[in-house]
TrEMBL record:
It comes from Triparma laevis f. longispina. This is Uncharacterized protein. Belongs to the protein kinase superfamily. ATP binds at K64. Residues 311-335 are annotated as: Disordered. GO terms for cellular component: cAMP-dependent protein kinase complex; cytosol. The keyword rRNA processing does not apply.
Amino acid sequence: MLRRMTSTKKTDTSAQEEVAVMKPREKRVFALENFELKETLGTGTFGRVRLTNCNIDNKHYALKMLKKVDILRLKQVDHIKSEVRILSMIEHPFIVNMAGHFQNDQALFMVIEYVQGGELYSHLRREVRFSDDKSKYYAAEIVLAFSYLHGLKVIYRDLKPENLLITASGHVKITDFGFAKIVEDRTWTLCGTPEYLAPEIIQSKGHGKSVDWWALGVLIYEMLAGYPPFYDESPFGIYQKILAGRVEYPRHIDPKAKDCIKKLLAQDRTKRLGCIKGGAVSVKNHKWFAKLDWNAAFSCTIPPPFKPEIAGDSDTTHFDDYPDSEETVNPEISDHDKAQFDEFDAF
């Protein structure tokens, strides 16, 4: 199965206005000359992510490099600003944390912790499907990350196996906060990956943290079945199936897991697990997680079901190979356009 495309349509611009509820971490100062650029780990609309070695602390980081000319062309300044601001203020064991950020005339740079184990997507495709215990392990760590984010009024909005990385010690980390947003009540942005969109996003009813719990239900199903619950050749066909709400469950899925998925995939978000009284606690208290020690899960003391083979801090064998980028001269941007990036230095 090919990697799923994520929709990039975003229409509201209020994300960056409410992040003051979070306390910024101590700011680290970096510059491009601090980094030795190594292999490419991934590519995207605005640039690429490179493995680097930092001469300040001799650590390896993933350096996300975003071209300003492309950010401006696609009118994504506010959304990149929101991503950087949110990542500057959050820190969690199951989130890929940002060590710092900086910029020059041509690009923005985000210094992200390097997670050597690669995407959960790759491991799932290789194994076809995960066991009940393995799926539960990863789901629990995501529940803890969502509980943390939602407590800060952050909704993530892009959960899928491609955006989950496995650490050398076998834990899961959420990456790519391009669609994350601070939401007090609801937002009306259309964004996400078709197979993982909640009904309220498709119907433009306005949405909040409920969409993350729906996506968790889709992920648990995909981990256990090996394919998502709603699939079609076209996005429109996927949307029709999501709104119809009919899900067929393979016989091998445990009844408790099935019940958890069904309650996360409740069409009525007021009855959806995670949205009912107790919020994230209602998910933690579900019978599928009955034997799980949540304190041990948070402290990473439960032995992981799988540890990727890692040769060292700079090992990239769990990532796809990408051709080296061609060195090109980026077009100059005007002083007015440059000024749009001034606020990044304050984060």
